[in-house]
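Office hours follow-up: a student asked to see two folded examples consecutively, so here they are.
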Amino acid sequence: MIKHRQVQRRGRRSQMTTSFTDPAVSMDLLRAVLQPSINEDIRSVFNKYLKFFQKAAINVRDNVGEEVDPEQLIQETCRSCLEQAKLLFSDGKKVVPRLPHEQTVPKRARQIDEELNRRGSPIPKKRKGRPPGQSLLNERGVSSVAAWKIKVSEPVRRDGPKWDPSRLTETTTFVLGSRANKALGMGGTRGRLYIKHPHLFKYAADPQDKHWLAEQQHMRATGGKMAYLLLEEDIRDLAASDDYRDSVDLRLEELKPFVPPAWMTEKMQKHMETLRRGADAPPPESPPEP
């Protein structure tokens, strides 16, 4: 007669044997062991091209404004690279999902990505007379970077009723740009709203304005950090448009509108009038002197 304890031991041995002979489990165990080394190799590859991402991100910030966070843009770009790299190991059935910001990438840039992935050679061969990585920047990266430059350098129309300073009254409500960004479902990336909708009126708060905003607990006392004010009406108009009304990420409760003091509204009226008169001139990216 076999004792109960012996049966239990045999059962455990059987389970262990099954686990270690499962192909998926065996391969995943190997992957777990090698993963730290793989991560280091991946990091080395990204470090090689990081300087290109940094230059492009800084260029975007210089053109759009200090609200853009270059580090956030770089991280999103790196994540996008990893998503696209999955296509190298695709079985042809699964579709690699695109990150939200990739939906707006120009068609030509997407075609280049798809063509390179079909060839199975995402990194072109080096050419004589070029520094390492230069061919990659020229042949692949230039399309995306050029697209950013073209978009931000196009003349922005500042006319019509939305650019009439008389619409700014002592009862007009405003919202912080960071809150508007979240309310429209654009995540925590600062500046994405201004890149996508450059026609919006935005006012860079100066130290006096930021002091009042902090006192009223509309924002934290952040020192030199930029803070933009936008009209609540403009943001709600955007939210009601076809681009946003059906978005599951819409969070209008994040707006937290407020009425600024008369002296601040007067400064915003003057700023709007200045921008309207010089429609081809970009809005100031640094706060005015107090």
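And the second, which I mentioned at the end of office hours:
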Amino acid sequence: MDSDPILLDETLRPSPPMNPRALLVILIVVTVVNIAFALNFVLRGAWPIAPFMGLDVALLAWAFRSSTLAARRFEHVTLTPSALRIEQHPAKGAVKRAEFNPYWVRVDLQWPTEFSNRLFLRSHGREMQVGDFLAPSVRERFAEGLKSALWAAKNRHFGAQETGR
């Protein structure tokens, strides 16, 4: 229902990579250093090494680009008393949307290892992983905030009955 108050409205984003200017400066410095070393190898007769120096720069540029593209993805989580809505916006591709009933959804934070965790929303045989790009501590804080907001959504109507509203 559109008239429901919004109890939680969060946009989850991955930690951003360095700004584009800094990435460009690093790439230029690495390129200049690799050209210097490649010229040194060519002058000493070891010319087959030069293409690998170029490959090194190309792979670094690809890694920077991939990191920047991956940082564009985000998830939008909205909770009202009647619905928990999740929109997952990947860097490329279609948006994935899901809606859960706040009374039935379960927030499940799993710790498969000591240093990593995964957050799932589960309800009636359906599940959705949320915030897989977040740091474990951020994911844990979000899970606790979501649990609190869900508790408020579930108990909101009981409080209104008790006070006579």
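Two things to take away from it. The first helix runs from residue 20 to 43. The chain has two domains: 20-70, 76-163.
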